[in-house]
Amino acid sequence: MIENNTSLQLEIAELMVQALNLDTTATEIDPEAPLYGDGLGLDSIDILEVALVVSKRYGLQLKADSENNHQIFSSLRNLTEYVAAHKTN
Predict the structure, then answer these.
(1) For the chain, how far is it from start to end, CA to CA, in angstroms?
(2) What's the CA gap between 68 and 5, in Å, rounded?
(3) Closest among 22, 88, 59 to 76, alpha carbons compared
(4) Running DSSP on this structure, what letter comes out for residue 64?
(5) CA dihedral 43, 74, 62, 46 (to 10 degrees)
(6) Number of compact structural domains in the chain
(7) SS3 36
């Protein structure tokens, strides 16, 4: 992973911690762990909240009915790669 994505990944993790008021720090979130269920333990409402803050922060569209959402939100690393490829600001 390039250095730019590492800092972006940490920034997204911090957004998630703040938006969801998580009992963990951004650096403790495993980039490979699932965001749903057994990994970070997020539910569909949490994912919607993450999508909202990420969309606002990076100026990209994340649609609730997108077929790619399961892949995009499968892990912090996948979310970071999606944001890096599609962000506008």
Answers:
(1) 21
(2) 20
(3) 22
(4) T
(5) 20
(6) 1
(7) strand
From CA 23, how far away is CA 72, in angstroms rounded? 23
Position with higher pLDDT, 38 vs 73: 73
Tell me the one-letter amino acid at 23.
D
Q: What is the pLDDT of residues 23-56, one digit of tens each?
A: 999 999 999 999 988 889 999 899 999 999 999 9
Question: Which of 24, 65, 61 has its CA nearest to residue 42?
Answer: 24
The candidate with the shortest Cα–Cα distance to 54, out of 18, 21, 27, 29, is: 18
Rounded CA-CA distance 16/18 in Å is: 5
- Is a pLDDT exceeding 60 seen at residue 84? yes
The closest of 4, 2, 16 to 73, measured between CA atoms, is 16
CATH at residue 39: 1.10.1200.10
pLDDT at 2: 47
What residues make up the domain containing 29?
Answer: 3-86
